[in-house]
Design goal:
- It is a multi-pass membrane protein.
- This is NitT/TauT family transport system permease protein.
- Belongs to the binding-protein-dependent transport system permease family.
- This protein has 298 residues and is mainly alpha-helical.
- It has 2 domains: 30 residues; 216 residues, MetI-like fold (Orthogonal Bundle), CATH 1.10.3720.
- Helices cover 77% and strands 1% of the residues.
- The chain contains 13 helices and 2 strands.
- The chain has a two-stranded antiparallel ribbon.
- β1 and β2 form a beta hairpin.
- α8 packs antiparallel against α10 and α11 runs antiparallel to α12.
- The longest helix is centred in the last third of the chain and has 39 residues.
- It is globular and about 70 Å long.
């Protein structure tokens, strides 16, 4: 009969009955997410750009087909110029100086009015977010004035300001102001209160809390408000240029409609779209360095 001493080596030799070593990590089964190939940042950008180009190409083809067959099904394309005519008109305007004057004047108006709106909007939003009294005083004015469209401001703006240029900049300023104010206010209100209390318990002053806690927490909303405000500022600018302007891409588009020049109408619309898209992208690019901490926390 084997002894206990001889049973121990036999038990040690049999692998299935031995207890697993705690220091040995258990084998991991590969997950589905890990098995998927991850694209590099450059690859993701290229794929997104390719999808965007394909989508725009399909839109242009649909536009060409609708104008070629004079589609009249709820939407009438009988008088809508084809993409070829619009592109030819655009190339023709590229050889004229007045076309670039219209673009430069609109860009200058946007730069002035948007800069003023950004400075006032961020300041007012931060003050309202940290002061209940300021919020109670200013918010009624914002809620009453904000729904008024830009076109409705034109007659009063002409009466208030000494020049048409100042009235257009004022209307554009109002369009960009309210999205920036409200998004800044929302960002300040969404600051985690636990972070504020933690900073207070460490002896931080109100200025230090505002600078190192409240402002960084509100930056994503401020960035979104700046991007939205840029888009709304273009809408307001064009409304002012159509009614009271003599130069600008909005005046160019309205003048083309008055002269029944349909290709130029579409040229003006597309230029407005590309300028608005480019300026919004520029705002996001300028605010991106302020949001680097978001990538580090993910």
């Amino acid at each position: 009969m084997p002894s206990a001493a001889t049973e121990r080596p036999l038990a040690a030799a049999t692998g299935p009955e031995t207890a697993p070593d705690a220091s040995t990590p258990a084998p991991r089964t590969p997950s589905v997410a890990a098995a998927r190939p991850r694209l590099r940042p450059g690859g993701e950008v290229a794929r997104s750009a390719g999808i965007a180009v394909l989508s725009l190409s399909l839109g242009v083809l649909l536009w060409h087909w609708a104008s070629a067959v004079n589609l009249d099904f709820y939407i009438n394309f009988e008088n809508v110029p084809s993409p070829g005519k619009v592109f030819a008109s655009f190339l023709n305007h590229l050889g004229t100086e007045i076309f670039f004057v219209h673009i430069a004047v609109s860009m200058r108006r946007i730069l002035i009015s948007y800069s003023i709106a950004a400075a006032f909007g961020i300041s007012i939003g931060l003050i309202m977010g940290r002061s209940r009294i300021a919020r109670a005083v200013v918010m009624p004015y914002i809620e009453v004035v904000r729904p008024i469209p830009a076109v409705a401001w034109i007659p009063l703006a002409i009466l208030m300001w000494p020049t048409e240029e100042a009235s257009i900049i004022y209307i554009t300023f109002l369009g960009a102001l309210f999205p920036i104010v409200l998004n800044t206010l929302h960002g300040v209100e969404q600051t985690p209160e636990v972070l504020v209390r933690a900073a207070q318990s460490l002896g931080a002053s109100r200025l230090a809390i505002f600078r190192h806690v409240v402002l960084p927490a509100a930056l994503p909303s401020i960035s979104a408000g700046l991007a939205i405000g840029m888009g709304v500022s273009w809408f307001s600018l064009l409304a002012g240029e159509i009614i009271s302007g003599q130069y600008g891409i909005g005046y160019f588009t309205w003048n083309a409609y008055s002269l029944i020049n349909y290709p130029d109408i579409v040229v003006g619309m597309l230029v407005i779209g590309f300028l608005g898209t480019g300026s919004t992208a520029a705002v996001r690019l300028l605010t991106r360095p302020l949001l680097k901490w978001q990538k580090r926390t993910r």
